[in-house]
Amino acid sequence: MLTKMFECVERNRDGRHGVEYRFSKADYDYILRDNVTGSWTCSCRTARRWYKAALEGTWKAKTRGGAYTASFRKLRMTDELKRTLYHIVLQKPFATGKKCAELLFEASGQRFHSSYVNKMLKEMKLTVKKVTYEKKKKFTVENIKYYESWVELYKTIDRRRLIFCDHTGFNRTSFHKKKGRSPAGTRCISNEQVNQGKRINVTGMISWDCTRMPFCFSLSNENSTYEAWVKHVGAATRQGFLKPGDILIVDNWSGFVGRNTGAELAQFLHTHFNISVWPLPKYAPELNAIELLWQYLKMEAQKLPIPESDAQCTMQVRLLCQSVNDVQPFVKHVDDFIFQLNEPLLEDGAAGLD
Known about the structure:
By secondary structure, the protein is α/β, with parallel strands linked by helices. It is built from 13 helices and seven strands. The strands form two sheets. Strands 5-4-3-6-7 form a five-stranded mixed β-sheet, sandwiched between helices. A two-stranded antiparallel sheet has the order 1-2.
């Protein structure tokens, strides 16, 4: 009987499936009528109840005195089925619970209800989350090879020489609160809104070596961030923050590695100060510890009052940067991330220092 019911669903499917399909009177006449006696084996309501139980994986047929009765038991996924479901989700990350149940049935022959599949996915920590769209250039063969070799070199290099470099920007809207509380069903609205104002460029460096100054930074309002970077490198060299043999870890911004900008500065630093520039793989902010510092400063800025002028905004950004007295948690976070990368992504590549 259940076989006939599933046949009707597959034959008459028009975009609907499972318990959403409504059996017609002709369907019930085909499903329930006994070919020998010509009578119905059970009522439509009982057949429908058995069908739902079969979808949920809780139906088991028994015979008692020549008649069929339904016994309901809770079927649970075995470890092998969980592994199959896990691989299905990895291959089809956008599949719904119903789709996962169908794919699991095709792979194993075991039918489970979508609600039970969703419950298993939650227990397996395969939760629904915001989709991250990575740049395609991050997954090119050349970049992945460079990523692997960069990580391997990081593990063997004298990390006391490493200087993490980057720049970011603040304005008056950076001090706006991003989260708040409001009654259920209503939006959290703030009336403390100001003009964006001028952008304040923050160029910074943090060292892996804890014996140095924790955070070397400079502020500027210049439109050219490259000019601000050149001035900051010169000031850090004169102040003694940068020392011979240091390695500047930078991203792939043109001001750091551009042919007519960053490359010329890197050659000058290497020739006159024995300071090397080591570019990160493309789109790999997880390898730069100063990115975590920027995130921390942006969160701390939301705790401060909203500045009423550009001058007050500059003062608050300066005080915020001066309050940084320990960057080792950020450095340790990157170290832990890199040293737990054990499985190679591709064949061995090659990475070097400029």
